[in-house]
Amino acid sequence: MFEKVLKELERMKRMQVSIPVETDEDGYYDKECPSENCLFQFKVLAEDWSNKFNDDSVYCPLCGHNAPTDNFWTTEQIEQGKEQAINQVKNRINEAFSESAKEFNRKQPKGGFLTMKMEFKGSTTSSFILPIPAKKELEQKITCSKCGSRYSVLGSAFFCPCCGYNSVIETFDNSIKKIESKINNIETIRKAVTEISADEAELTVRSLIESGLSDGVVAFQHFCELTYLENRKTDEKIKFNAFQNLEIGAKYWETIFNESYQDWLSKNEYWELNILFQKRHLLAHREGIVDEKYIQKSGDTRYKIGQRIVVKEKDVMNLVRLINKIVNEIRIKIGT
Ligand SMILES: [Zn+2]
Ligand SMILES: [Zn+2]
After folding, report:
1. Ligand number nearest to the C-alpha of 157
2. Are residues 9 and 126 in the same domain?
3. What is the mean pLDDT of residues 192-203?
């Protein structure tokens, strides 16, 4: 009686449903990192996705996870795809049941004592496959300086999804952007947390501002170390975290350029930068409590031993300005 249904089920074992995925208005596809602890969503220009990307190897712009192209569907694409595939299956089974019911009714002997009628109640409206729409375009569009692939992200990116290239400059610029956005949003954060507790708001805000100093010095250290290693003239080993220390770092640059921080900054700027670096050192190693070494190395006599240093938004912004000035000077000199 249900041959049609059984036949249909048999056919469906080999059934494939292909569902088109749309690009956004700028021609970009949505992608998502398959690494469970990342799931970063980004976009890739459709033209480059077809012509430049290698099927076996795509990189997540945020974490650098590497996997074949078909691992990069977004959660939404998979959900919508599944839903449409299930609808297709349901529809075909329903149609087969409906056909079987009609056939059963046709085969009933006319005029008999007992007639049976089979009625199928499921829906058999045909379901069309709809292309999966793309999310809204992202503002930040990036072109890889190595392979030329075009992609876009929200926030920041460290790796080109096509070739995996990790640009030192982009990483530095991203870190600076992160620090600036932290500082620019301090008031919003303060307001939001104050609604829960004024005490916690103060602690949160202070910790965010102080972390700006450390983020800045770490970004500077990373940029300087990699750039120095690429451009140095000798093979001598460099000290661990050498560029977290202005005096030591300056000596390395002198071996390449015959000049360094004190030539690139005014006397006052260098003095301010040195204080900020020393403050970062205190926060990292002494909970921010002033010791003799701090006063001696920074020349900052506004504090007495045992006091705790104070860091304000403007200090972090000043650090960003000064390290940017140095980084730009180095970039001009090495031509990047
Ligand atoms: Zn990732
Ligand atoms: Zn690339």
Report:
1. 1
2. yes
3. 95
Span 61-99, pLDDT tens digits: 999 999 999 999 999 999 998 888 888 888 888 887 888
- The 10s digit of each residue's pLDDT in 270-285 is 999 999 999 999 999 9
> Among all ligands shown, which has an atom nearest to the Cα of 32?
1
Segments of 135-211 assigned E as strands = 140-143, 150-153
User: 19 CA distance to ligand 2 centroid (A)?
Assistant: 28
Ligand nearest the Cα atom of residue 53: 2
Both 107 and 250 in one domain: the answer is no
Structural domains in the chain (count)? 2
pLDDT band, residue 246 (cuts 50/70/90): very high
Report CA(13)–ligand 1 centroid distance (Å).
34
Residue at 268 is within a domain: yes
Beta strands across the sheet bearing 28-32: 28-32, 41-45, 150-153, 140-143
How far, in Å, is the centroid of ligand 1 from the Cα of 37?
8
3-state secondary structure of 38: coil
pLDDT in tens, 112-163: 677 777 777 766 555 677 888 888 888 788 899 899 999 999 877 889 999 9
Residues of the domain holding 248: 168-334
**Distance, CA 87 to ligand 1 centroid (Å)?**
32
Q: Quick one: which of 276, 290, 274, 315 has its CA closest to 186? A: 315
Backbone angles phi, psi at 111, to 5 degrees: 70, 10
Q: Are residues 247 and 178 in the same domain?
A: yes
CA dihedral 293, 294, 300, 301 (to 10 degrees): -60
Q: What is the distance in A from the centroid of ligand 1 to the CA of 59?
A: 8
- Is residue 148 one of the residues assigned to a domain? no
